[in-house]
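FORM 7B - TANDEM STRUCTURE REPORT

SECTION 1: FIRST PROTEIN
SEQUENCE AND TOKENS:
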Amino acid sequence: MLGRRVAAALHRALQTTDRWQCLELSAVRRACEEMQVEPPFAVGYQQALAHRLGADVVVAGRIEGVAVNALEGTVTVRLILDFVDRIGGQSMMALEAVGSSRRSAGGPRPTDIIVSEALADACRAVAELADTVPAYTGQVVAVSAKELSIQSASDVPVTTGDRLLLYRVVGGEQPSAKLIGVLMVKNVEGAQVKATVLARDGDIYTGDVAVCVGPAHPGVKATH
């Protein structure tokens, strides 16, 4: 039950950043029931769920602990989460966050409510960390066997080790983007980025678009 509360709270928190398009939780639960799987999920199951749902990234994790101080009326929780890509099962961003809440001075409050507030507080912290991922985009200008050259399309910088998802944009009246690769930034020189291909789903061509999805940069002001 606590896991479902975290999922709902994290869904709301990530949606508020305007950086993520989150699937409806009912669709995720339905897919789990149809596949007859339940958490905790190994990476293979995370990828299978992502393929079934058409998700590019899966967020999975655990509640490390819930500490209740009855005398002070406080609850503290710790979340450990990982953002994993669909193609290679690579960790895009591992995060830890602590949330807390306490009873108000106006009178008694159910501990269950305080726990829910602490979970929501931790999820807000996760969303704030995730929002520090550079809002970087770039376009592939050269392709070799294991390395790509990318021309930055934004003024937002990336650094060595940043993870990128690579998309092919298909035109038409309603353009769509297909996930085709997972990259790691190897070198940055001005607007030129060299990236290593970690996993791919088909051929990569010039013109494909890279988007940064992790890791978080704590202490860095969120970029949009």
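SECTION 2: SECOND PROTEIN
SEQUENCE AND TOKENS:
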Amino acid sequence: MSRHAVLGTFFFLCLALAVRSEEPPKPVDPPKAEDPAPGPVETAKVIEGDIANLSSDDPILASEAYDALLEIGRPAVLPLANKLAAKDTSADAKYLICDILGELREATAVQALLPILKDPLEHVSSVASAAARALGKLADPSAIDPLREALKSTDLELQYEAIRSLGNLRAVAAAPEVRKFLSSENKPTAYGRYLSCAAVEALGKMKDKASVKEIGKWLNKGDVERGTETKFTKYAVRALESITGQNHGSLTKSEEDGTKALDEWKKWWNDPATKKEYGVEEPPKPPTPGPGAETPKEAPKEAPKEAPKEAPKDGATPKDAPNGGPAPK
């Protein structure tokens, strides 16, 4: 390319750039205004509608209302508490409200939930059990004594949730009462869960050393909880790990690892030092006779007593009468 051609090309390029730079800039679109946040009145109406839908016969609508109230969060707590206390609130709505209040973790809900521990209504399981479960999530120690009182109920589902909540609250003072449920493995709740499994779990969280001598026996149990399909041995190991601070391997990585870990825990349990530390009483063994000791002879059997002879009747001749004559009168 000749020198003139290069200069010509450069000239036209500069001219094009100059013309383009003189073009007016394109207007920038203004930012879209966000929708204004709903005011208190609008929010209250939404909450009221969602709470009403909790009682819907349409499970999808009730589920959507449940999720919406969880999303609203703190502003929904007071309306939910008021609805929970209302006499005309249905059992299904009360049950769901208890669960929502537990999930929202607002301590202000405690006073609304405590009276529900004595609520007689049922929705699949008792409404009272839903209240007990929620109280365990709120971490308020004022719920401990009412939950201990709930252990006396005949409602198995309520007992189960009260035990678990006392464990979540680390209610050490309730440990003696919870220990009483360790032998309740044959008492399933409405969902097939066992009171004894909840007790082992709770006592582990309480780090209750006094329960080790009972929990240790579970290391040799082959039972499985119906409701969760969890082995009793797994409940025992988790509790013992928490109480003793020891770890003998994982029960969840693989079946082989789980077997090894359980074997190690059994060795620990059978160690005399463990028995001594946790006050495990072993049955006394019979004394072993030393060398040369005589084997105790069997006690002579007592000779049977001779049956008393029947008195002879008048005129009868007894065998020992002299000369076979008549017996003297």
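SECTION 3: OBSERVATIONS ON SECOND PROTEIN
The chain has 15 helices and two strands.
The two ends are 175 Å apart (CA to CA).

SECTION 4: SIGNATURE
Preparer initials: ____
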